[in-house]
Amino acid sequence: MKRQLYLWAGLLALALGTAGVALPLLPTVPFMILAAFCFARSSPALEARLLNHPKFGAHLIAWREKGAISRRGKWSATIAFGVSIAIGFTALGLPWSLVPVGVAGVCLSWIWLKPEG
């Protein structure tokens, strides 16, 4: 039962990560990291496919081995948060428009303090 739950969670994370390729504010790699985590506990074949993927494999392996995020990934996240902040300021009134600023500050601090890989 536990293995099936991990499999379904991995498939959901994979679907969300795939949607993130086309949707600019939905992150891709964090969902792929979650999918790899779930597949490691449910389906070694699916985990191997993710780790050998030409686009995401290197990012997943760098995260798994060193907790590293590429410089390009860090800048992509920074730009995405900037867009979110701009949308928040145009669509929300005070004080709600400050929420994306706070979230971005916390998340980007964490992202930029991670090693690069």
**Mean pLDDT, all residues:** 89
**Unreliable residue stretches:** none
**Helical content, roughly?**
over 70%
Overall outline: globular
Number of helices: 6
Distance from N terminus to C terminus (CA atoms, Å) equals: 36 Å
Main structural class = mainly alpha
Largest sheet features: none
The radius of gyration over CA amounts to 16 Å
Strand and helix layout:
Layout: H1 2-22, H2 29-40, H3 44-51, H4 57-66, H5 71-91, H6 99-113
In short:
This protein is mainly alpha-helical and 117 residues long. It has helices at 2-22, 29-40, 44-51, 57-66, 71-91, 99-113.
Descriptors:
single chain, 117 residues, mainly alpha, 0% strand
Task: Give structural notes.
The chain is mainly alpha-helical. It contains six helices and no strands. Helix 2 (29-40) packs across helix 4 (57-66). The longest helix is centred in the first third of the chain and has 21 residues, at 2-22. The relative contact order is 0.12. The mean pLDDT is 89.
